[in-house]
Amino acid sequence: MALDAGFILKEYEFEFKFMFIGVGMTKRGKVVVGVLGVAVLLAGALYGALQVPAVQDALFTRAVEARAGHVRTELLEDDALHIVFCGTGSPLPDAERGQACIGVFAGGRFFLIDAGGGAAEKIAALQMPIGALSGVLLTHFHSDHIAGLPNIVLQSWAQGRHEPLKVYGPAGVKQVTDGFSAAYALDSVYRTAHHGAEIMPPSGARYAPEPVPLLNDFSEAVVLEEDGLKITAFRVGHAPVDPAYGYRIDYKDRSVVFSGDTVKHPNVVRHGKDADVMVHEALAPHMVETLARGIEPRLPDTAQILRDTLTYHTSPVEAAEAANEAGAGLLVYSHVVPPLPNALARSIFLRGVSEVRPANVKIGRDGLYLKLPVNSSDIQESQW
Ligand SMILES: [Zn+2]
Ligand SMILES: [Zn+2]
Fold first, then answer.
1. Ligand 1 centre and the CA of 309: distance in Å?
2. Residue at 70 is within a domain
3. How many CB atoms lie within 10 A of CB 339?
């Protein structure tokens, strides 16, 4: 329904006059007050309408139809290497970032690099088709890389995955998946009992751990190679976590390399050679040192734990150097430490980076989507 603003203004002019008794308003002033009055009346009417159950139900139904159950099927269909950042944070609590989680889609397959806390929730919010999950590639077994696994299993099972979930990673991956299986054994029995074996067969609750052995610092292992998709694991340096892996994913003529958690490491440079995208972890030592100093009087042990993290991560400047040495196209920081809640924090985090790498650097945020179409050098970027 079109509203005739002039008519409404005239209608309510009397009331506005009444409201401003004795005030000799100009014509312009009356119009301004009139418009404000109309806005207040409309807001009041809208508020009133929103209290009517039938209106509430209609709006809720519309929202459900528009969103619930919809997933981004183009990630499985478009011939491209798709990268969706579902968690760009770290173990430090961060309201804006989930823990380590990145989705890679290529050739109809869907792999997750790590599954930290909150991964399943972020995946749902980003409408990623979790029922089509092909497998999880774990870089190592720190909690911020594995804590989300049980919910990933549950959500993908409930959305159609009936085969055991393949989980690749360093030796030790079976210990992790056996532990989660034991902890969730009762839960999975309840689910099958409640919803039936046809919808939630016991097989969907299971893990299929796939240890990827790497004999020494210089060895690599091809985790999977089929239909133009190749996933390669390599070792990085995250001592005392040993081994810790990075992964390179090639799809047709496009590529992305993931550093995993590591100090600046020659293997990331070697396996990141000419990659279209390098996703590198980064911890800003100058910010972590300030944080440690700040909490030291109240939490001295926690301050020491923070300082200890300086020994096994890469600084933003070092990651930029690694990207340059590899000749990588776009560098995206993920597993960002500390949290960066505003532009000031991001500016401090990036201090010194532009001197090393003036362009093609990005701080990853949850919901960042990169599409790398095949037979092209394009990197299409959007924030979901
Ligand atoms: Zn770690
Ligand atoms: Zn980590």
1. 9
2. no
3. 17
Which ligand is closest to the CA of 262, given by its number? 1
What burial class does residue 172 get, using C-beta atoms within 10 Å of its C-beta: 0-12 exposed, 13-18 middle, 19+ buried?
middle
13 within some domain: no
Contact between 345 and 316 (Cβ < 8 Å): no
Ligand 1 geometric centre to CA of 100 (Å): 10
| Ligand having the closest approach to the CA of 144 | 2
Contact 291, 306 (CB under 8 A): yes
What residue type is 381 in one-letter code?
Answer: E
Task: Note the pLDDT of residue 95.
Answer: 86
Q: How far apart are alpha carbons 224 and 76 in whole angstroms?
A: 18
Distance 76 CA to ligand 2 centre (A): 28
Choose, from 94, 114, 144, 261, the residue flagged as catalytic.
144
The answer to whether residue 330 is domain-embedded is yes
Question: What's the mean pLDDT when you consider all of the chain?
Answer: 92
What is the CATH classification number for the domain harbouring 200? 3.60.15.10
Q: Does the active-site annotation cover 57?
A: no
CA of 152 to the centre of ligand 1 (A): 20
Ligand nearest to the CA of 99: 2
- The answer to whether residue 236 sits within a structural domain is yes
Range(s) of the domain holding residue 127: 79-383
Q: Tell me the average confidence (pLDDT) per consecutive run of 10 residues in the chain, 384 residues long.
A: 43 45 63 85 90 92 89 96 96 91 98 97 96 98 98 97 97 97 97 96 97 87 96 96 96 98 97 98 97 96 94 97 98 96 96 98 97 97 97
Q: How many domains does the chain have?
A: 1
